[in-house]
Design brief:
The protein is an alpha+beta fold. Helices cover 29% and strands 15% of the residues. It is built from eleven helices and 14 strands. The chain starts with 26 loop residues before the first helix and ends with a helix.
């Protein structure tokens, strides 16, 4: 299913009613039906509320998860403020108490004045009221930062930290993951750990600052690597190694435009063109997947076949004894035959690469053992500057409109010979050019006939609404740090 939309590709804040439609079947819901305990730890970013700030209509519990701890939104620059703001945040957490005490004093003096118990001039009382309003105004003005409204942590349905301290959040999540594993070591479980690393602004603890040769980005990768190691060690320690499938991967390539001065904060994509936010170029969509399952998947093998994150659902259905939904087209494929060596090639003959809801490219892997991997680009982003390989003016490339180029006929590459997608093929340089273009076009037509329009979540529903912003106190006095109390 797909929906028409605009250049907004993500849920904008926790104050919008957009979210993952409730009629979607997640792999968590599928495994829960098979008797698995299911947990999500980390970033959610699939919506939270619909009609009120605490209805939690898009909470992970409504999508098959039994336990949730993490960040319901995603990391943004505001989530890791400059150290100079620590004093400001600490001051603001006490300002509300000062306002309350001043208000109590005004009420007491006013009641005493009217009752004749105290003799104070009305000018003093009115001055105190004005002072309270000024304090309140100053307090509320400081709350324009998204740090307070989108950067928070939740355990189950409870907000535990608002605003969150981003540099320690990852460590807490790793501890939560290990605790989940220990609680469910006796029965089948699914743990989906969605790292905050390595996403800008790259919040990193002091223990890992300066530990790599690649600046803050490298430090953040080092810290994530340490967390992965701790989780794997826990799996081994709890005796789960041989009956636990581990899959480590990413959702897109490096974010080329994420820079601070000359420092690269978004990774590097090697020989591959493009990066995060580009729906067609290899640098935006080509990512590794690392599997571990001793006794089930042979160790040390390197599989050079195109697969997809869509394959997770049918793969987990296969290993759990379940089955994917039968009332819709499932584009993913079970990866186990490929991982176990029962088949040589990916079951994906065609893969359709989208930027938001706009198709940008189609990949064709012929089943004739020719080794060719054809890719046709129907739409490509316009780089800014033109030869930069990224969209440095807009921070992310756009998916449609006047900032993309439409190609008819599409640009054609053979990735087996040109993995950098540097030189488009033509009828003069490739005898099969016209045949490949026609074959891809026919496959695209068949694919488009399977698409069912759905309500687009990232347009009207992606506008902020009053009353949806989550709050751990009495709105707008939303400050809490239960994580600090626990630690």
């Amino acid at each position: 299913m797909v929906s028409s939309g605009n250049n907004t590709r993500v849920i904008r804040s926790l104050a919008v009613p957009a979210g993952l439609p409730l009629n979607e079947t997640t792999f968590a819901a599928l495994l829960k039906k098979q008797g698995y305990s299911t947990g999500l730890i980390g970033k959610w970013h699939q919506g939270l509320n619909c009609d009120s700030r605490s209805d939690h209509c898009h909470h992970p519990y409504n999508y098959g998860f039994d336990y949730y701890y993490g960040m319901p939104y995603t990391l943004i620059d505001s989530c890791w403020p400059a150290p100079s703001r620590n004093m400001e945040i600490a001051f603001e957490s006490r300002l509300w108490l000062c306002i309350q005490l001043a208000a109590i004093a005004v009420l007491t003096l006013t009641f005493g004045k009217l009752s004749g118990w105290v003799s104070v001039p009305w000018l003093l009382i009115f001055s105190m009221i004005l002072f309270i309003f000024l304090l309140g105004y100053a307090w509320l003005c400081s709350y324009t930062s998204r740090l307070y409204w989108d950067c928070l942590l939740m355990r189950e349905h409870e907000i535990t930290e608002q605003p969150m301290k981003a540099e320690r959040a990852g460590s807490i999540m790793a501890k939560e993951a290990i605790s989940f594993l220990e609680r469910h070591r006796k029965g089948p479980f699914l743990l989906f750990f969605s790292f905050l690393h390595v996403h800008v602004p790259l919040p990193t603890t002091d223990d890992f600052i300066g530990t790599s040769k690649h600046g803050l980005y490298g430090d953040n990768v080092e810290e994530m690597d340490s967390m992965v190691g701790k989780i794997l060690d826990a799996i081994d320690e709890f005796g789960l190694r041989n009956n636990t499938l581990v899959y480590f991967t990413s959702d897109h390539g490096g974010h080329l435009e994420a820079r601070r001065g000359h420092a690269q904060l978004g990774g590097w994509n090697g020989i591959y063109k493009g990066g995060k936010g580009m729906g067609g170029w290899e640098g935006g969509i080509r990512i590794p997947g690392i599997f571990r399952w001793p006794g089930k998947i042979p160790a040390g093998q390197l599989i050079q076949e195109a697969t997809s994150l869509m394959d997770i659902l049918p793969t987990l259905a296969s290993v759990s004894g379940g089955s994917p939904p039968q009332d819709r087209v499932i584009d993913g494929r079970d990866l186990m035959p490929l991982l176990q060596g029962n088949i040589r090639h990916s079951e994906h003959e065609f893969l359709f690469h989208y930027c938001s809801s706009y198709l940008h490219a189609v990949r064709w892997i012929p089943k004739d053992d020719s080794g060719a991997v054809w890719k046709a680009h129907y739409v490509t982003p316009i780089f800014q500057p033109p030869t930069s390989g990224g969209c440095y003016v807009t921070s992310l490339c756009k998916c449609f409109g006047d900032q993309v180029t439409y190609h008819n006929p599409p640009l054609l590459f053979d990735l087996s010979r040109d993995p950098s997608e540097s030189t488009p093929l033509t009828p003069d340089t490739e005898p099969l050019h016209d045949f490949v273009i026609k074959k891809v076009a026919n496959a695209l037509k068949e694919h488009q006939e399977t698409i069912v329009p759905v309500t687009y979540q990232l347009a009207e529903l992606n506008q902020a609404r009053k009353g949806l912003t989550p709050c751990c106190g009495v709105f707008p006095f939303c400050l809490c740090d239960n994580e600090g109390e626990l630690s």
